[in-house]
Write a sequence for this structure.
């Protein structure tokens, strides 16, 4: 069993979680531009050195925390049918976008990305890439079950599944009524040309 070298920093998971929580709150209250390492450290009840042991910069810290928060909420489910998988996936997407903190953070991240697209590219890829991989796996299972055509345009299909929810909740700031997910699932099934499911 390998031992930690003498003097090496041991990163305690509870401290990392306290810092991550502090980052999310600071992003929600102050925004990307005004967030400071000092404020995160104070809110988490740690020294700034605890932050720098985990991340080399404010940008890396924010990207890491927001990515972990976002990717962990992508629904990796296999209900046995495309209809069931779509329902779980779309509900998880709604839950992510309407999360009390994240719903306040996302518009600021989008605005920051528009101001500084090079900096935002890494965050977009870190969040969007894994979430799209989960969606693609769901669609590939549906193809294997014969619910979707083998020549499905995967990029367009993934856009079709996420875009209406993002547009409704983030751009229009409209509510998702109790039957919204079921209506959207039926619409998506038709748009994808689904068979059975």
């Amino acid at each position: 069993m390998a031992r930690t070298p003498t003097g090496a920093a041991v990163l305690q998971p509870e401290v990392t979680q306290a810092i991550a929580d502090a980052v999310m709150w600071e992003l929600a209250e102050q925004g990307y531009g005004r967030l400071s390492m000092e404020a995160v450290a104070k809110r988490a009840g740690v020294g700034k050195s605890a932050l720098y042991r985990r991340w080399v910069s404010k940008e890396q810290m924010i990207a890491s925390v927001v990515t972990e928060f976002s990717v962990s909420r992508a629904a990796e489910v296999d209900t046995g049918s495309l209809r069931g998988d779509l329902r779980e996936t779309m509900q998880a997407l709604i839950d992510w976008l309407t999360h009390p903190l994240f719903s306040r953070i996302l518009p600021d991240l989008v605005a920051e990305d528009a101001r500084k697209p090079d900096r935002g590219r890494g965050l977009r890829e870190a969040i969007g890439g894994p979430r799209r991989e989960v969606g693609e796996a769901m669609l590939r299972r549906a193809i294997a079950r014969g619910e979707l055509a083998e020549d499905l345009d995967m990029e367009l299909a993934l856009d079709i599944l996420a875009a209406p929810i993002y547009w409704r909740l983030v751009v229009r700031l409209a509510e998702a009524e109790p039957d919204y997910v079921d209506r959207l699932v039926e619409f998506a099934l038709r748009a994808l040309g689904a068979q059975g499911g």
In short: The chain has two domains: 13-57, 73-191. The two ends are 49 Å apart (CA to CA).
